[in-house]
Amino acid sequence: MEGKAGKRDWTAPGPADTIDEEETAAGTLAATLDGVEIPSGLGARFETLARVMAKLRSPDGCPWDLEQTQEKLSRHLLEESYETVDAIDTGDWEHVAEELGDLLLQIVFQSRIAEEEERFDLGAVVDGITEKLERRHPHIFGQAEVETAEQVTVNWERIKREQEGKQAGISMPPGLPAMMVASKVQGHAAREGFDWTAADGVFSKLDEEIDELQEARRGQRADEVEEEVGDLLFTVVNLARHLGVDPERALRNSTREFVRRYSLMEEEARSRGTDLASASLDEKERMWQKAKGPSH
Questions:
Q1: What whole-number distance in Å separates Cα of residue 290 and Cα of residue 47?
Q2: How far apart are the C-alpha atoms of 244 and 236, rounded to whole Å?
Q3: Which of 68, 87, 192, 296 could form an S-S bond across to 95 if both were Cys, CB 3.0 to 4.6 Å?
Q4: What is the pTM of this model?
Q5: Which CATH number fits domain 4-12+44-135: 2.60.40.1640, 3.40.50.300, 1.10.287.1080, 2.40.110.10?
Q6: 209-215-219 Cα angle (round to 5)
Q7: Per-residue pLDDT in tens (0 to 9) along the chain, 296 residues
């Protein structure tokens, strides 16, 4: 019985010779990884986490955990992912470890419920990603040769298309923020040679898009204004890529800095016994410049 992407359904084991083939493949991989060190006792600690989750979901476990379904928990995967990214951006590595733990919990939680529903289990999740990493790194676990990270990316995409049975082409990854989707789409096009040769060309395109937005704005055509704003943002993402900047992170950091400065403005207004909304535009500008500090 075959599951998604041609993998055998974990609920329907294959014949003994198939199992022997899997054991042989596992042995080959283990030999390749001989000498690669990991923290002592990691396997046992991971098993303990799985046991804790199983206990929480047992008949005498936690009432809240027992009420959860994969659908109910799905939004937490997004929340924990964003919280992890935010912790990384702040550079608080102890907090990063905590957030990664919360994210790992969601994976173990989802896998436990799936096992109870006989869909798949945690072992299938671990085996699946292990096999994928091995398959998509033929320059490490096979005979392929690469010299650059770009070549690795090209191979990864090719192998992914072959595995999923997709034709070569560009697509919009579902579920990601629009800025991340734009960056991925542009990266794909660039690997196919459809790209500016240097950032100077993107700067010129940026000026062009601003002019077109101004023209649409003067014409008071709301649908065209929206379209031109989209084109402008798309070009900004492209510029960030050419400058080696992650646009999602850059915007998040700028927003965080704006919040910090705005909070200082509110504090100053409160210290005067008033609120920021009551201040004049000149007063707000003065407080804003003060909040920016001398370095800005």
A1: 53
A2: 12
A3: 87
A4: 0.64
A5: 1.10.287.1080
A6: 145
A7: 334 433 434 444 444 444 555 666 666 787 778 888 889 999 999 999 999 999 999 999 999 999 999 999 999 998 999 999 989 988 999 999 999 999 999 999 999 999 999 999 999 999 999 999 998 888 888 888 888 887 787 777 777 767 766 655 677 777 788 998 999 899 888 888 899 999 999 999 999 999 999 999 998 888 899 999 999 999 999 999 999 999 988 998 999 999 999 999 999 999 989 889 999 999 999 999 999 887 55
